[in-house]
Specification:
The complex is a heterodimer of chains A (186) and B (170). By secondary structure, chain A is mainly alpha-helical. Chain A is built from nine helices and no strands. The longest helix of chain A has 29 residues. The chains are: A mainly alpha (186), B mainly alpha (170). Chains A and B meet through helix 2, helix 3, helix 4, helix 6 and helix 7 of A and helix 1, helix 3, helix 4 and helix 5 of B.
Chain lengths: 186, 170
């Protein structure tokens, strides 16, 4: 675990020409960066390319980083922007619901019901407005506060708050609608 | 008096953020309302899904190595940017010289391209073909293409890196 002071020292060493010190920063932040890219792209291979590209860009522009925000927030913003540009450039790759929802073949009946509900929620998530969905997913990634999600996505904090709140409500409404429909068809 | 319970209250309850008094109020209203209970359950499912599906993902084992290898690639691209800049300066100088010569009237005369028949036959009288063209128009065309190349180089070597720099400044 690197402290912020150690991180600043690492940044100083990298700027002085110690490229290997950057490997430590990459190791520290790669999971979050990859996860953010994956949330945007929904494809592991593309997400890995985008996250790697983001780290390379961050290294290239490190001399411009003024350290007013945390390095991680700055990096994740680059990652988010890179993933968005990848999404615009590449055609969407279809990934079925079954591949992305947690599955477990040994569920008991009550767990199956819960599992079904989660499948429905996943479907409802795909129907959300992309900006709302991303704000919601980033918010639920443990480390991020509303302010950090706002910085990463280059939005106003109140906008992010509204998006997260609205997205949760829409999911709940959509789940209600789907469950009602399921009850009618049974 | 019953206070209106919103989704926000229910979510805060699920996150353990309500005070004891608020919890008591909520529970008394839940006891009287099936609709409220159902809404709570819907939001609970949403919260469970969001927490379960937003765990940290792990990239491939070679992730860091690939990034470090990519840093070497940047160094090579920086050298190309320098060459691009030299080419840009060269193009500006060449365009300047061409403009100077055009303004002096060096290319003002018209000329023509003479094409002789490769086969000279005593029986068939093949005429020589002469295609007239204006040298000034030709040089203007070349200069125009050169200016296009100049703008492309300006974009690649100076403008694009400059805007990328600003975009990633933290």
């Amino acid at each position: 675990m690197i402290t912020s002071e150690e991180e600043n020292q690492l940044l100083d060493r990298i700027l002085a020409g110690d490229k290997q010190a950057y490997a430590r920063l990459v190791d520290k932040h790669k999971s979050f960066a990859f996860t953010i890219a994956f949330k945007v792209l929904d494809n592991r291979a593309e997400a890995e390319d985008a996250a790697q590209d983001a780290f390379i860009k961050a290294f290239h522009y490190l001399k411009n980083f003024n350290r007013q925000a945390r390095f991680s927030t700055w990096l994740y913003r680059i990652t988010f922007n890179t993933a968005i540009s990848y999404k615009r450039k590449h055609k969407p790759v279809f990934q079925s619901v079954e591949q992305t929802v947690i599955t477990d073949n040994n569920l008991v009946e009550s767990e199956l019901e819960q599992h079904d509900k989660l499948q429905f929620v996943h479907k409802a998530m795909q129907a959300l407005n992309e900006a709302d969905r991303l704000a919601l997913q980033l918010f639920y990634l443990n480390e991020f506060s509303l302010e950090e999600v706002a910085t990463i996505t280059a939005q106003n904090v109140n906008t992010v708050k509204v998006r997260v709140h609205r997205a949760r409500q829409r999911l709940a409404d959509e789940l209600k609608r789907i469950l009602k429909q399921e009850a009618i068809t049974l | 008096m019953k206070l209106p319970i919103t989704d926000e209250h229910l979510l805060r309850y699920l996150n353990g953020e309500l005070e004891a008094a608020e919890i008591a109020t909520l529970k008394s209203q839940l006891a009287d309302s099936n609709e409220l209970n159902q809404r709570l359950e819907e939001l609970r499912v949403i919260q469970t899904y969001l927490k379960q599906s937003n765990q940290l993902e792990t990239p491939g084992a070679n992730f860091t190595d690939t990034v470090m290898a990519g840093l070497e690639r940047i160094k090579t691209e920086n050298i190309s940017a320098r060459r691009g800049l030299i080419l840009l300066i060269g193009s500006i100088v060449a365009s300047g010289i061409a403009l100077g010569l055009i303004s002096l009237g060096v290319f003002d005369s018209s000329t023509s391209l003479l094409i002789e028949s490769p086969v000279k036959n005593k029986l068939l009288n093949m005429p020589e073909i002469s295609i007239p063209f204006n040298t000034k128009v030709l040089i203007n065309g070349i200069l125009f293409l050169n200016l296009g190349l100049l703008f492309m180089l300006l974009d690649r070597t100076i403008l694009k890196p400059l805007f990328q720099n600003r975009a990633t400044a933290g």
